Amino acid sequence: MKQVLKNRLIIFAGLIAFYGIIQALISFNFLNDYYVVNIILMGINVILAVSLNLINGFTGQFSIGHAGFMAIGAYSSAIITYKLGLPFPLAILIGGISAGIVGILIGIPSLRLKGDYLAITTLGFGEIIRVIFLNTEYVGGASGLSGIPKYTNWTWVFWLSVITVVLIRNFVNSSYGRCCIAIREDEVAAESMGINTTNYKTLAFALGAFFAGIGGSLYAHNFYIIQPENFGFMKSFDILTMVVLGGLGSITGSVLSAILLTFVYAVLQDYAALRMVIYSLLLIIVMLFRPEGLMGTKEFSFKKLLNRRAAKNELTVN
Amino acid sequence: MKTFIEQLINGLSLGSIYALIALGYTMVYGIMKLINFAHGDIYMVGAFTGFFASTTLHLGFIPSLLLAMLVSTIFGVTIERIAYRPLRGKSKISILITAIGVSLFLENSGIILFTPRTRTYPQIFKQHVYSLLNGYVTISNQQIVIFVVSIIMMVGLQFIIYKTKIGKAMRAVSLDPDAAKLMGVNVDNTVSFTFAIGSALAAVAGVLVGIYYNSIDPLMGIMPGLKAFIAAVLGGIGIIPGAMVGGLLMGVIEAMVSGYGSSLYRDGVAFALLIIILIIKPAGLFGKNIREKV
Amino acid sequence: MKKSLKYLPLFLCIVLVFSLLSGCSKNTPSTSSANDKIKVGALFELTGQVASYGTSEYNAVKLYIDDVNKNGGLLGKQIELLKTDNKSASDESINQATKLIVQDKVVAILGPATTGATKAASSIAMDKKVPLITPSGTSLDVTVDPNTNKVKSEIFRACYTDPYQGKVMGEFAAKDLKAKNAILYIDDKSDYSKGLAQSFKEQFEKLGGKIIDKEAYVANDQDFKSALTKIKGLNADVIFVPGYYQDTAKIVRQAREMGINTPFLGGDGWDSPDLVKIAGASALNNVYYSNHFISSDPDKTVQDFIQKYKAAYGVEPDAFAALGYDSAGMLVQAIKNANSADPAKITDALSKLQNFKGVTGSITIDKQHNPIKQTVIIELKDGKQILKKKISAK
């Protein structure tokens, strides 16, 4: 028990140190704005990828409409701050909650479907959400909302992505999460073991949507302008790509690949159309050589490292 | 009533094109359980081949069409060989990501090679407008060509699938690839052949769109591709007549929504309809609900 | 506990070193070359939905800058044009504008082509006090903040605004064509189209006209027959289609095929050499649209530009190219006037720019950072452009 506590403290200290260092680098202008933009983007993508991984990777429900939830979070949070002038933390929460509610509403009918049918339904819902925003004059229709205050910074992004990762990790390791994994492995068997599959699927879906909403809120308050076009199915594909590349069912994989892909994107920026060609080739090549993604379903963990060391220490003491 | 019939004709011409693209989706899905997201871009390749065949090579309608079919077929088969075959039997989602990758690759290569400009399709044959029922309804010769070509293609496809040996192999692989293999069916060749046919049909759709709307661009495949896919799901994916009916239905519904409602909701309505149908009848209009065996 | 903490400093050091390395490795601007080159950012839509506009503009900008460089440069220095792509997306515009300003230290940005992307990029440009000229971001709030009604000090444009163009066409429809009722057929996804339609409606109704129907299409549609079938039954005097040529060409072609012979009106989005190719010459009769210039204009500046553009890219320039060319011209002129490549001084010179002779007429920047210049209304007869009316700058 003490060991567990110790390990957690170490990890927490590490996080604070990491946060502090980056923050210091930003404050002292070691990392200029261009880096900051991309670091923030990395954080937002981590949140999106990890939350989609909960739906696709852990619960095995094939969803490709994640950008729709992101859009709901982005728009609702922008309405809270920009239209109503309320504080940012409330906007993030409302963004998450409204996306979560829509997740439940969408989840109940569509989660009866399986595999590709579910995929295309979620894609459809994502597009419908976009079309609704496109036709709502209150949020600017096609031209979107511009002039959203820029509240998103390294502090918000970092701690929210940490909270997302920790919460989803804990969820996956809880009995609820185990039920979700059981559904992924064999739905029929899970049902016969007395797991209410519909409930758990909806729960995972709502939770994933909630965090996507939070990602959307951060996105909206970072980019000054949001338009329905920003949340098309290409965005959903981008997020899906991160998840699959990292490994379905590996949280650390999602984190790493979200960071990596954002980085690749930034590096290839100077090449216009060629960049997308290179990007797509990379995608194909990675999939051909590692279809299970970079991490598969494995997790990279400090705990194992620390435990291993702890075990060694005990041996030497004895 | 007059407007209604005209809208119906518009919808059916658009629908025939969707149906041609949807056939490729449905065949590939039926045989490999793969959503080939790059299919819409194969249609774009076909359209561009047809364009260059008739502008730079000055070929007529039929030779251009055949050349476009040939080039698209080569593309389709090559993509399957390089990108999809190694992943057969692996997780569905990784093969989907590969398909998305291929799609992005084709679109952006198109932008580099052809520039993003909209190209103007040459008038392969002159436009004539026929009045039916003494001017009550008009129909153009291009619309007639689209109908005729689409119907020929669909009938031909049905013939191949139900009357030839390779068609039998296709049906066998789609039912149960392992059993088909044991019975001596060459699965690889069958899959290649399926891709070839699907791509050729997409090329036909591309050339027809070029002639009908006379403009093409490298990103032209995205939306029709998605719509055709929905059409395939609507009819019940993996079912040939389903794709045809789904495509036609999709075209007609779109025409009606733009004619009697607002075009802005058109894409939304297409998806909403799909979702409603799937929730009521999860296997599509023509699909049978197969109970999962434990 | 103590033992496990032993490694913490080590870990921190590694992180520190790593981040410093990543920070420094790219953070060394090539100071030597920065001194003898004036860096200008070109931020355009080179891929994605509106790649064709961005590409046209970028090509024209490059043409102008190359020309300046060939003729001895500017203030005795060469201009380095840094090309970036915003993928037709607003978030990517922010990203790229940041890169150009912070990373590459450009003195000014040319682009983007569309209103949304321009608004996004201008938030950065204003923040960092670097001037930005959009060739074709036409919405009012590109240069004026709608919430405070204050002019965005660093943001300029080379085109006129949506309301202005709509007003011109509304007046033209009512006064010159004596139209009593009109149908609006707009691209509902585009700010440009909506803005034009709105001000056309206001002006047209003010002059006693009536809007009898409003239809919408979505950009990059192929089939407009459904809405046109509806329009056909209404028998309006004019149909106003403020859209881009890829769409409007198909609309007018399909309309004429269906036997709709009503005059079509449009804005500068109609202007493209491809219009005739897509629509066919026979469909292009009774079509009027407002534009920045007419390619048959004997003016030397216009003819030179058309020749150069054709020689370089093998196609006729469209309105986007002309505006891109002028945006580069305005910037070079401002740097000359300021006699300095300092962003603040360029901004100042741009806001005072007067009578700059561009392809799209003589340009003077007004208080709201919009150019005051001529408008031409072009009539098409069998696809040929005829100058219907020239409206001089007000």
Automatic annotation (TrEMBL), chain A:
CDD domains per UniProt: TM_PBP1_LivM_like
Membrane-traversing stretches: 9-28, 34-55, 62-82, 88-108, 115-134, 154-172, 203-227, 239-265, 272-289
InterPro entries reported for this sequence: ABC_transp_permease, LivM-like
Membrane topology: Multi-pass membrane protein
Pfam families: BPD_transp_2 (PF02653)
Main location: membrane
Assigned keywords, A-Z: Cell membrane, Membrane, Transmembrane, Transmembrane helix
GO cellular component: plasma membrane
One GO MF term: branched-chain amino acid transmembrane transporter activity
Protein location: Cell membrane
Keyword Phosphoprotein: no
Name of the protein in question: Branched-chain amino acid ABC transporter permease
UniProtKB/TrEMBL annotation, chain B:
UniProt keyword annotation of Zinc present: no
CDD domains registered for this protein in UniProt: TM_PBP1_LivH_like (cd06582)
GO terms for cellular component: plasma membrane
Record keywords: Amino-acid transport, Cell inner membrane, Cell membrane, Membrane, Transmembrane, Transmembrane helix, Transport
Membrane topology: Multi-pass membrane protein
Keyword Cell inner membrane recorded: yes
Major place of residence: membrane
GO process terms (BP): D-alanine transmembrane transport; L-alanine transport; L-isoleucine import across plasma membrane
Subcellular localization(s) per the UniProt record: Cell membrane
Bilayer-spanning residue ranges: 12-30, 95-115, 144-162, 191-213, 228-252, 264-284
GO molecular function: L-isoleucine transmembrane transporter activity; L-leucine transmembrane transporter activity; L-phenylalanine transmembrane transporter activity; L-valine transmembrane transporter activity
Family that this chain belongs to: Belongs to the binding-protein-dependent transport system permease family. LivHM subfamily.
Protein name (record): Branched-chain amino acid ABC transporter permease
Organism: Aceticella autotrophica
Organism taxonomic ancestry: Bacteria, Bacillati, Bacillota, Clostridia, Thermoanaerobacterales
Automatic annotation (TrEMBL), chain C:
CDD domains cross-referenced by the UniProt entry: PBP1_ABC_LivK_ligand_binding-like
Domain Leucine-binding protein: 37-383
Record GO biological process: amino acid transport
InterPro entries linked: BCAA_transport, Leu-bd, Leu_Ile_Val-bd, Peripla_BP_I
Matches recorded under SUPFAM superfamilies: Periplasmic binding protein-like I
Keywords recorded for this protein, A-Z: Amino-acid transport, Signal, Transport
Signal peptide region: 1-22
Keyword presence, Transport: yes
Keyword Glycosyltransferase: no
PANTHER family hit by this protein: LEUCINE-SPECIFIC-BINDING PROTEIN, PERIPLASMIC BINDING PROTEIN OF ABC TRANSPORTER FOR NATURAL AMINO ACIDS
Family of this protein: Belongs to the leucine-binding protein family.
Protein name, as recorded: ABC transporter substrate-binding protein
